[in-house]
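Input for the complex:
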Amino acid sequence: MGERSRLCSVWLGSETGILKGVSVSRKQAFNFCNTSHLSRDQELRALCWGDPAESELLVGAVDGTVKTFSTEKGEFTESRRCGDPEDGCFTGLAALGGSGLLTCGERGPVRVWREDSTEPVAELDAGKNVCRMRLSPVHPNRVATGGKENGLKIWDLERPEEPTFTAKNLRDDWLDLRRAHWVRDMAFIPETDKVVTCTGFHQIHVFDPSSPQRRPVLEADYGEYPLTALSLPAAGNTVVVGNTHGEIALLDLRKGLVRGCLKGLAGGVRWLQCHPSQPVVASCGLDRFLRIHGLEDRKLLHKVYLKSRLNCLLLSSRDLEDAAGEAGTEGVGEEVKDEEDEVWDTMEQVEEKPKRKTGEEEEEPQKKRKKKKKA
Amino acid sequence: MDVSEVPVSQVDSGTKWMKRTPKKKNRGGNGEKRGPQRKVEEEEDEKKMENSEGVFPPNFSVSEIKNKQRRHHMFMKIKQEKRKLKLQVKKKKKKEREALGDKAPPKEVPKTIENQRVYDETTVDPEDEEVAFDEGTDEFSAYFNGLTNPKVLITTSDRPRGRTVRFCEQLATVIPNAHVYYRRGLALKRVIPQCVARNFTYLMVVNEDRKMPNGLVLCHLPDGPTAHFKVSSVRLRKEIKRRGKDPTEHSPEVILNNFSTRLGHSIGRLFAALFPQDPQFIGRQAATFHNQRDFIFFRFHRYIFKNEKKVGIQELGPRFTLKLRSLQKGTFDSKYGEYEWVLKRHEMDACRRKFQL
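Predicted:
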């Protein structure tokens, strides 16, 4: 199990409660669970890395348990209860420095957990119907929350009493009707204070807490279906959004224009993640496929069928393609190599043909030249 | 001599004379006129050759002929020849087969886009634990475990006219425990909670366009999924030839053909859950959902065992064809609902040999 898990560079949580690992270079997918007790209560809703070295994976299930999965050993090492099932399923999960844990339920309680304590260290109330909670990758104390009828709020975990930033209501539309908030996903834009959100009303908003303006500094629109997921690529200035019809688009964050669409999806997107260094984006959703698109040419690079509806996704920060080169993977690697060797051994040697080909290639231009001369 | 004869011939007779006279002169040995005359004759000969044999240089195409009539003529001729050749080859092959008798090689299977189908990785393996678990705990599991009995509400788009009304009525005779209600301009999202409260397990909405049914929304209650189909080639009972008497109220057997992929399985389960789980065989009725090239053909038959080998069937109607447009998770919510599968034209059906169901 451990060897397998070390190969995987993409991790996915499914609706059937199975943690799935995919090795992109090998084109193999593994299930990490006990297939004898599958149940829908174990449905995975959130995934995050437990430590910066990416050896531990934190998995949030619907019934309010957070399990720790060791990618070294390839098995679940720990399971602890974080919050009641009454709080709703996890909408966000993040690891804090020093073995701390940050969870957020659907009904709004954001809790900070320390190791060896069953009670939360700190708790803040983000309001009802929270759709997503995200921790800033740069400032480990900044947390953003948002949901339906619940605008974007940015919190400081040191001061959980009230948020440091709350989005103001949106300006009324051209019919003087109220426009509701429905934040579905958000992300902190690196190197700035800005936060980008996508909404259930197919808008993309950029908020800037450093400016006095509490309404979005940029409003953009994509498609006509609710946007469900969002991710920021490593190369700045763009954002990738996905909607419930399986349309993914790249938007420019400077003017809010669509830069291109990613094709090939059949069902709604549940989670998107861009690779931290490579220009690729991975998407998963209701059509049970993991798809990896290149962001530069917007082509579909990989497509893996994973048999269950997928809820969440996590990419490891190492190179997607090179997973085989690692030291610990020799055991499985050799097996595969053996198979390959057999295949190669059984094949006939085809050394002569290329020579001929090269000969023809050499000849052909000569012929052409001759023809030209004749002409 | 020459000068005097020519005007006479022109005046007296038609072209026949014209042709004959110069020939005679040529034979007489007029050296000057011989050259051009021969050329004409040669051309005529060539034309004759073409007519008789139809031989062309290898890269000659009929479309190069400028004269339309001639082109048409030649085209027909070539076509006939090809057909003749084909028949000959066929006969020859048949004779060879007969001569070989039992040793004849097996007949080649004709290539169709179905048997050339691109492999779909979502094809369900019946032994797959994960898929079995997924299906065992999905929204239809209550029905398949025998906990609920289907109860179907059939309604239409607003103000149905003509065939749509009759189509709904006939659907209600096919599906046991179905109730047809007039829509009364109600929103589906408000109808659904009422249906759930009254223990309906299905909501079926027939959409119409210009008095013809053209869409079907099939919503499983209480918690989805919802499928949207295009409906085409509806033939009501009246329009079916050699149909049997009206169906009885027995619950029919359900035949689901060719639903092989994961999506196909979901759709198949959706249809299966429309009918009660225990068919009443005494009714001898069978409802068929046959999937071919992603089109789902519905037929409703009555069968009879004539003797031990022969079975007679009789169509009862209605018959129609469905094509899946989308499958949505949850009950009907076309605006904010999450779609499990959406047909994307020109993207999904770009390959004719790729099928989704």
